[in-house]
Specification:
Blueprint (H helix, E strand, L loop, with lengths): L1 E4 L8 E11 L2 E11 L11 E4 L11 E11 L1
Parallel strand pairs: 3-5
Antiparallel strand pairs: 1-4, 2-3
Length: 75
C-alpha cells in the first residue's frame, strides 16, 4: 500500500490525490497533486491523505521512492 500524507493544513478545502504509480529500475514513481479549493472554507485543521493499494511484495527491500507533487489552486 502507498500512502501520501501532506501534513497539517489550516482549513478545510484541501485534498491530495495519487494520480499514477509506476515501478521502473527498482524505483517507485509516485505522481500526485494537492488541491486547495479557493471557495469558502471552514476554520478547522485538516490532514489530507490518499492511500492506494499496490502489490509491492515482489520488489524486495531495495526500492527507492521518486515523487512529484503538483500544487493546484482553484481561485
Amino acid at each position: 500500500m502507498v500512502v501520501l500524507a501532506v501534513g497539517t493544513r489550516p482549513a478545510s478545502g484541501y485534498q491530495v490525490t495519487i494520480e499514477r504509480l509506476t515501478v521502473t529500475d527498482r524505483q517507485l514513481h509516485v505522481s500526485a497533486w494537492e488541491e486547495r479549493n479557493g471557495g469558502a472554507a471552514l476554520d478547522i485543521v485538516t490532514n489530507p491523505v490518499h492511500a492506494v493499494a499496490m502489490p509491492l511484495h515482489d520488489l524486495g527491500d531495495d526500492l527507492h521512492l521518486v515523487q512529484r507533487i503538483t500544487l493546484w489552486t482553484d481561485n
